[in-house]
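Narrative summary of target 7.
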Amino acid sequence: EAIHISEHGERVLASWKLKADHRVTLELPLGEYPDVGIIGLRIHAERECVLHGGGYLTDAPVTQSVHLGIGITTYRREDAVKASVARLGKAGGAKRVSIGRMFIDAGRRMGFEVKLFSYELESHVPVSVIAEIIIGLRWRDPNLLKHMHDTVTAHSIDIIIPFVDGAIEPASLYCSTYGDAWAPSGDADTMKTLFDKAASATLFERNSLPIPATSDGNRTYPLIAKPRFGSASRGIRIISSDKEFDEIAEHIADYLIQEYIAQREEYTVDCYIDAHGTPICTVPRKRLEVVGGEVSRTVTLRDDRIMELSRKVIERLHLRGAVTLQFLRDITTDRMLLMEINPRLGGGAVCSVHAGADLPSFILSEWAGMSLTPCDNWRDGTEISRYQQEVVFYNNPNDK
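Modeled conformation, tokenized:
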């Protein structure tokens, strides 16, 4: 029976009688259906059966008559519904305990268990309190993809989520090469371009996106020199004289050199874009405090100017999946400028989740083949302050 459940009760929309000893596909007949409430299937089974697709897993007894593979309507691929477990591989997520717990909670709300695996160079990392650690290879190791494939196969991993810059391109390349896991990101070529700051600046200019002026040999000081393949603000140099410029002149090709804007405000925008290019969320945050290149205090800010510019960036660059945009505002001229794009979840993305933009649910839902609804009701002014907490490892085997 196809049933409609609402605050007014339930009613049967259509009914069938089936006899089958193998897999059967059942489709609702064409027609108009209510816009409000839940459309569910009630199965009266003579023996235990499994429903793949259809139904919505809730606490309502009417939807619990059968064992659901995962209680959602459609699936990206059949292998994803072998059991009600989503297995996530976190690439380089050694310290991402908070966001890992958010994925676990999101899965629980959706009615299935999330198991986490973290691909690391060592086992004694904080995320081990919630995830199984997989000792992996470095991101530039020639055997990386093969080792990732062995890992994905051995642990039946469904989703690969990069948490550091070096993991972005391998995650995308792996998924396009093997196809047995999915990553919430765009194509590997775009990921490679965005990891190169000089190539990114060229891409931004070609798409008429506002960025700080790039030096073409003009030594108008102060300048900022960013390593092309750096991250977390490592290796950045402020250049104020010919002498300082000459110190890097021999390796100038290894840097992106731009005007340095001393009087500035920095903003991050947590975005999620579905496979069709629809922005599901664009949540600006003001960076209040940064430690080691990563935000330690941040607050959500509903700024129409930043949100509109973010949507323009997404549309012109055809971005997909989880994306972190970095902007700065030149206080002197009021210019809003794009600094860089990290096509992954940022460290401060937990702030946007606390504000109501449920990024883990977006990722799990898209993996499962569910349609996503744009989220614009996140809370403005949500502030987080991050802190350190130790994880203890007892290395002496005699300690218990």
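The longest strand covers residues 279-291.
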